[in-house]
Every structure is written in structure tokens, then in C-alpha cells.
Amino acid sequence: YQRRVHGEFPGDYGWDTAGLSADPETFAAYRETELIHARFAMLGAHGCVVPELLDATGNVPWFKAGALIFSEGGLDYLGNSSLIHAQSILAVLGCQVVLMGLIESYRVSGGPLGEGLDTLYPGEKFDPLGLADDPDTFAELKVKEIKNGRLAMFAMFGFYVQAIVTGEGPVANWRAHIADPSGVNGFTEVFATRFVPGN
């Protein structure tokens, strides 16, 4: 095992037994991929919990929320028809592709907001709150972001497994666990077969 990373990157503690940092270009691509996935996982984990917490959405679990667009009245985001009232899955998909394409192209090339920006931490107009103004604070925030992102990626995996095993969302599972911690937990539910696709 040859140590190739020495703590110079956010969330890097010099542990690379798999040799993922052997090639600097590949390592840079891995770092970018991890950070982008971490950011999406943080948003996704929040998005898995919110629909189930809101009475306005009917407390629908995350894995059933998207299917509401096929219901007769369509899908009201956050249960409010004045926000976004989606009735066409093709329109939603088209908007997502266009908006994400614009966002990613701006992130990579700077777009109209600036040229030569760091693709992972562009700063300038992408930092309206000035979080990157102080280098020490910014370095600390980078570490916090990747740590929370890694946790969120594991949380998303847990949400997937939980949905398959129990057929319920994370909030319903959490409430059941709080009500009976010794009877409802990961060890008692691991062999549950309540999930039936389509229910």
C-alpha cells in the first residue's frame, strides 16, 4: 500500500487502500463525481422526508410521490396548486433535462456568470452569501459538505432498502421505531416481506 493522498483535499485523511488516487486525472474525476453525487444525495434525502411529513401532500412516502402525476388531478408540489401543478410527465421531464443541462453547463464552463471558475467550488456569483470569502472558513465548509454528503449517500441507500423491505417511507418507519424500539428495528425488520410492487 503506497500512500498517495496526504490530507490536502476536503474529507481526505490519507486512507486509499484501493489505490483510487494513483492516477491524478482519474482521482480528480472521482472527486468531482463524489461531490456532485453527495450534493444530489443531500437534496434527495431531504426530498424523501418532506413529502411524508407534509399533511398537504397526504403524507405520501417518497417512492409513491412521483406516481401522483398520473392521477386524475395531476401533482401539486408541496400540496399547493398555485406553486407547480404538474399534469404531464413529459413536460416535467423536459423541464428537468433543460434546467439541469443549463446548471451543469454553467458549473463546468462558467456560463454568463464568469470564465475560468473552479468547477467544484465556482464562488463569485455562485456564492451570493459570501461563504467562501474567508479561506479558513471555506476550507472547513468544504470538509463539512463532503462529510454530510457521504452521510446522505448512505442515508439514500438506507431509504431504498427500507422502502423495499418495509414498503413504508422513512418517517413512518421512524415513528414505528420510536413507538416500539425493541420490536421495530433493523434486526426485526430485515426479513420482512411487506413490499409488493404496485401497492
Overall description:
The protein has helices at about 25-55, 60-65, 90-110, 135-165, 170-180, 185-190, and strands at about 75, 85. The radius of gyration is 21 Å and the shape is globular. With about 200 residues, it is mainly alpha-helical. The chain has a two-stranded antiparallel sheet. The model has no long low-confidence stretch (mean pLDDT about 80). Helices cover about 50% and strands about 0% of the residues.
What average pLDDT do the residues reach? 79
Number of helices: 6
Computed CA radius of gyration, to the nearest angstrom: 21 Å
Q: Strands of the biggest beta sheet: in what spatial order?
A: 1-2
- Low-pLDDT runs: none
**Gap between N and C termini:** 49 Å
Helix- and strand-based class? mainly alpha
User: What's the quaternary structure here?
Assistant: single chain
| Shape call | globular
The percent range for helix content is 40-55%
Major beta sheet summary: 2 strands, antiparallel
Query: Into which percentage range does the β-strand content fall?
Result: under 5%
The helix-strand sequence is HHEEHHHH
| Annotation, overall tally of beta strands | 2
